[in-house]
Amino acid sequence: MDALSKNKIKWIRSLRLKKNRDSEGLFVVEGAKMVQEILKDESATVECLVTTDESLDFAGTQFHTDTATMKAISGLSTPSSLLAVVKKPQISTKKSPWTLVLDGVQDPGNMGTIIRTADWFGITDIVCSQQTVDCFNPKVVQSTMGSIFRVCVRYERLEDYFENVDRPVFGALLEGENMHCVTVPKEGILLMGNEGNGISEELIDFISHPIHIPGKGGAESLNVAVATGILLGRFSH
Amino acid sequence: MDALSKNKIKWIRSLRLKKNRDSEGLFVVEGAKMVQEILKDESATVECLVTTDESLDFAGTQFHTDTATMKAISGLSTPSSLLAVVKKPQISTKKSPWTLVLDGVQDPGNMGTIIRTADWFGITDIVCSQQTVDCFNPKVVQSTMGSIFRVCVRYERLEDYFENVDRPVFGALLEGENMHCVTVPKEGILLMGNEGNGISEELIDFISHPIHIPGKGGAESLNVAVATGILLGRFSH
Prior knowledge:
alpha/beta; six-stranded parallel beta sheet; 8 helices; Alpha/beta knot; homodimer; CATH 3.30.1330.30
């Protein structure tokens, strides 16, 4: 097992930026559990591993380093003992009956949790506005708990996307219909908005079914990942 | 408006620790939006304010400081321009028909989001095991988005708590009944477990209604705040 050179450290750190992840077609996965899952996953291509512990049963390139260097290359506040540089999965054309559309979700933890929740409910298709946080951001990857390899996330201009859809579009709006009262079709689109501002003005007209989670307490709103989960839970009936 | 003395800086920083929050009966709230909401809330008692901007319309003690000092006293990675030291709310005896019980939730973000979600659904009563993260931890307070002042969170030995309950106990378990098939009573208890380990072995026998969120995708589990939201959404029907 080789030691990690200064150039390699620089290269891994460079993948914290979206433009470098895009140009290299690579991203970083951290944490022993997630990396070990990826090594078992035939659809994932691991470029190299970095570890502070002993070597792993891995045929490719492995680097050994110390905890201080791991801290320097990690994109997380609590670095783990194992990190992998992984090829971005191919955009699949496999569509699920339901598509989740995200309009400007900003928080990496929310984004990762939404991807994990979609995966739980069998939704493999997420379409995001270009203002939505990159799904290969280290904190997003971490929060997906491995679902990033099973869900296809793509970014496009949502006005263009909605021009071409023929399925019903459910949009989470405070003034929508009570979610318990709607008839849920077999196929559809769920549109969720930004944490602070909700769904953009320009997209409201594309919503065929405004939908609302009934609440009777004092909170002004729900966390967007929780709201997504509640609505997907309702649709899973 | 006074400048912030070294002693005051030390005092505010000391409130990052639970033992100091407990002995002083105080905790810290950060962020302009949340602090401004508290100032309007008659049930909240603000001990003092710290700001990097101009003074606010507040009759009590106010300190002015610079951004670097704010960073030093803040319990968050991105400090805001406004911070308040606030008296812990009194434990209310007002009970909601549903009680949420948390068995060892560890992540502050999850905890805060759960409190916010409970508030949305009108649940004012949360009972936590002693292993659950403190609800006055700065990151928890931040994630509640103000719901910490409307929901009563208490900590006790859950075995003792469950010995004395007479409402049905729904527990989130992977082998539980499909949530869409259960009959939801008017009153009850929802028990949620720890992020990694779920509900403790010792508490399983207290569950009268094991309940499960049906999923058909690849994710092994759901985030605990999302799962809590989905189940409370189901119960809100």
